[in-house]
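Standup notes
- DV: blocked on the single-chain target, sequence here:
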Amino acid sequence: MSTVKINRRLLNRDKLEAEIAAVAVRVFAEFGYEGTSIATVAEQAGLSKQNLMYYFPTKQVLYQRVLDEVLDEWLARMESLADAAQDPRAVLRAYVQAKLKFSRENPWASRVYAMEVISGAPLYGGQIQSRVVPLVRKDIEVFEQWIAAGRIAPVNATHLLFAIWAMTQSYADFSAQMALVLNRKQLTKKDFDDAEKVIVDMVLAAITVQPQLPSCDVP
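- DV (later): unblocked, structure below
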């Protein structure tokens, strides 16, 4: 078999696996891991169960693929923080923008990840521990360098990141509740733009170095 034919076959396999994963993320988000069956995913993907299992032999393998893709996207955004040479305000603004964009464009993926974490990460805790924790520590080191250089105010970087995650991801995980409060069927791009401004303003306020007032000597 020629190299061209082999490459075409691999390309077709990658494309089909990506399509299956795109269907699976919606099913897992709707029914959770326990409530999802390979048969349901196969039906919605327009495949037989046996055909799907050729690519993903178990539900856990498929679930792992879905969560890997979510984490890859998330970590790609976090890596932009780990550069002390950049302007802190620009970095954090871009990070908030990227996280909100992910929540708007990939709400199903965000919900699957949230459901796994809320349940105690029984199937994906090892990946979170090995991939997320080291990168968070690198980001915290950058924050500490910014603080030491007087570029940002002293701030608990860990909890600032927690707050950013919570604020941005809630626009995917709790969008239905937000839409009900706003009296519409779903959140609009303007809602995300408004959220971005509020969140960015809050984050930048937290890191802004306050000018020191001149001391008043009491005679």
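- Follow-up: The domain at 66-207 is CATH 1.10.357.10 (Tetracycline Repressor; domain 2).
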